[in-house]
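Lab meeting prep.
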Amino acid sequence: MAGAIERRRFLAAAAAAAAGGALRPESVGASGFVAGASPVSPLAPQPPQQQEAPPPVPLGNGEPPALQFQAYPGGTGALMEKLWHETGGNPFERTEIEIERWSGPVPGDEEDVAFLPVHRLAALIRAREISSSELTGIYLDRLKRLDPVLLCAVTILEGRAQEEARQADLEIAAGDWRGPLHGIPYGLKDLFAVAGTRTTWGSAEFSHQFTRYDSRVVVRLREAGAVLAAKLATGEFARGDQWYRGRTLNPWNLDEGSSGSSAGPGSATAAACVAFAIGTETQGSIVSPSRRCGLTALRPTFGRVSRYGGMVLSWSMDKTGPMCRSALDCALVFNAIHGADVKDPASLTVPFRFDPDPDLAAMRIGYTEDAPESFVEALGALGADPQPMAEIPRGSSNSLGVESSAAFDFHVARDGEPEPLPEDLEPAERRSRGRFRGGRDVRALDFVQSQRRRHVLMKEMAEVMQDFDMFVTGSGLVGLTNQTGHPAAVVPYGFGVRNPDSESPTEMPLTTTLIGDLFTDDKILSVAHAFQKGTDWHSRRPGIE
């Protein structure tokens, strides 16, 4: 009996070893020994065969990880099922946004034309009161005249813009009007690739970087007929408003920068060097320059706009959104650029149904203690019933540090180890160049645990938001909401001295932020638009001429 049990144990071990490639069955004799080998117990672990591993695939900045962040705590499947029931069938349906047709005289002054919002420019072009070529010429002239002051543009694409404008004019003349963005000149943050143009990331080290492909947002805007006029400045590697030519300035106050890192889009749009711009945010880079420059902007729910072709800082936090001069403009631009993209595995399509005449009484709107009282009161006058928010959760993660170090490992490391920093670097440059090294020291276990706590934070935020569609906040809460993926709309609501204690206490636009529940980008823009229909704060102009 003992011999039979021993034989069965041996055969089981041999079969397992053969399946794993450790033994060749023909080399096993009846005695239980491996032919040509020293006698060993048939149950002893066998050494694995040594196989030469292939060299690791070289990685640049853009390759996404296999794990993808999803802003909805229940996951994509649960979100799609929820939307399917709520929308009555098709959550992927796109709805058109109508614009009012032009009536009355056309502004005779080019500056008056340049500061018109996109939806009014679209009406002019559709009525053929102005051509895309004429409008593009106005914006190109302003870019060339004001960029030496503002340092808002990296590359003015004059020839390309003129050609795209001529093409738009031909199509519109033939009756082929593509929609509200057809023939409208815009600017693009210089983190996005455009075939045949420089994409510098704000760094002198990449100032001659050219690509042969287009970012997805560029493709979608081209399909909508928009005209790319300029690549606009970003702080170096998407931090701040300092880049290799200098500091991008705020057209409302040339003594200060336009904030970052969508510094160029903020400055250029506020100065009417473009009709609108595309920015990005990882942790405040749309909200901050829009607040500083008095713009209306949308930082979308995470995943709603493809980031393909854009420089990566954090796969789980980077977002792309419009920076404009009105909420309606943001809706028009977002409607053209949102949606899933196979080249951005974190992207998805959910309904966007902007309502130009929302019933604010049906909206569940909250406000925090620091919300501007005048804005909250204005919403009440429009029919809303704003309610104070419960305590907002707090929390953070190590996502940005770890992911940015991974994204820029190709730049700071050689042969797997970062090159030492030169001894003679200035402190600011040392901090900048050391920025992408800290994440290398974080243990994998600590990164995973941090992401688990981040998911707890997302569920806590979901509990706070369950009775609200949105809430008003004075601070913007960019730290929290970039962790959770919630959308934000920046809205000008007044004018005054923002900081009396500053070195230059100039009167400036005052802005607040609407934080929406996940995927309520349409609702927060609808409420912002309802406010703007009765105010003119968003149409004020900086005196930079």
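Slide two material, second protein:
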Amino acid sequence: MPPLIATMSKKILNIFCVLFLFGIHQFEAYGQQKLNRSGTQLPFKIYKTTTDMMSIDDIIKSDTLFASVENLTKKTHPDNVYWVKIDLTKELETLKKDSLWYLRSHHYDYASIFYVENGTLKEKTFGRFDSTLKTNSILYAPGIPFRTNSLIEKRFIYLKLQYVYSIQSTDFLKFYYSSNVTEQLKGNYYSWNDVKILIPKYLFTGICLIVFVLTISFFITSRKKEFLFYSLYVFWLFIYLNGDVFRVNNRFFGGFNVASYWFQQIAQVLINLCYVLFVCHYLMTQQEYPKLHRVLKAIAYALIAIVIMDTAFFYFDFFIGHIQIMNVQRIIMTLFGTGGMIYLILHAKNRLAYFIVCGSFSYMIGALGLLFLNKTTYMITGATLEITIFALGLAYKINQEQKEKLYFQRESFINNNKALRAQINPHFIFNSLGSIQQLILSNKKESAIQYLSKFSSLTRNLLENSIETTLVLSDEINLLKKYIELESLRFDNNLDYKIDIAKEIDPYTLEIPMLIVQPFVENAIIRGLIHKEGNDKQLTISFSKEDTCILCVVEDNGIGRAASIKRKSIYKNDQNSRGIEVTQKRLQLLAPLEKETVTIIDKVDRSGNPSGTMVVLKIPTNMVF
């Protein structure tokens, strides 16, 4: 091994060793810190009052008011104010090791800590609605700093707490203290248990973002209201369940305060409102489920009224009203959800109803898990399942609507094609009867009888196939042969014709539109060959394949278009053949993207004189009937 490479290898190995040992050291340090991430629990006593008129001086003087937390009622109330007295006597020796410590507890809506500074009692707010409170963690409330020399009577911490946004169990009233290092660890880093809590939140956020963008895009392009209300439904779900992940509420209202909390709480009502409106448009309840539609309409108005009332309750700090009206809203939606699912199961008119039932059931189970077990994970899981099921339901509905659209387009196309083809038959019959009349007037009775016999045979074939829109190429060729033989009687059988089929074409399986070639063959005979002098009257019809089209070339050695114009030929722009015009429309229906479906070429001889006409038809083979 060259010396330079050996030296570099040793250096790289040393770097890896250092990094490995450093990682082990950090892991051990983290493990030691992890053991005490929550801090040390503190003993306390509590005093509950319904008045906010007492000062800290009154509280300190009324020491007998405090009692054990076990003596409290088991549920909080928005009107209750809780004074807490924390005794740090047993922790004084530990507190002397550092001057700065942090008090940790549950989230409180309104909260204050009291301490001594320069011999004077001071108050510092730290509640949930204190917008000046900052923290890096999205899981934990920030620790409240206190110093050993700021303790009241050198051993007590007094707190004033109020829990207003819901009624909770008093079991959450627990207090801890921790060092500055632990506070930094908990505020800036997450344990594996924290990560397990955050993973579902971030996954749910990603799902909400993707679904919201897709559905709002569909709404912009399609203007279907079910996509609008579904996208709003997903948005409010994110705000209610996961708005704290990216601090959306804080960004809207400049921090976590009463307004930002109202925004999150009102989101749960807007979730239900958007859900109701989504169901109305998704199931088209006004047409399909009139009884259900009336119920949905009434619930929508009730939810709008709840939004207005709850906003007023927050404005006037009537928090018990907020709690009660939210409970009423939950009862309404639970009863409706249960009744609605049963109704749809019994009266479902299509599969769309089952998507609503399955999605609603998933969401209801998650909501009940959050309500009774107080675990957001259940709600996130249920909401994720519902979002997925509703998204599948929307995709299914789009697919069904597309199938219906294609079906109606197909029926419209077939009917248009039949109508256009039906216009050819009278034209063809009129010309044939005219030919028979001409033979009779010319006293060619035998030819007239033969013509009439062949005409009746051809007409019978046309009537037998009148329902069909396509024929296999072999049957179309048989009709052409009968028609040409019919017309050749007018020439005293002095007409030669030839029909060529390319080897790559199977005439017994390939389908083409019925009578798509006949008008051009008729044109070649009646306007080109019938007026030609002499016995050299040639008609050639050939079929070949080109990409997705069949090229049909109808070629004659008649008098050409120039002479035909003088005879008021049907090729003249103001006197176009009805059969040619109709056939061109049929070809345009069959191949709307094709610029030229019919090409007419004037043939000339070496002297530049007209020598006939060539018509090239492009007949698509990828037709949908």
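Talking points for slide two:
The chain has a mean pLDDT of 80.
The two ends are 75 Å apart (CA to CA).
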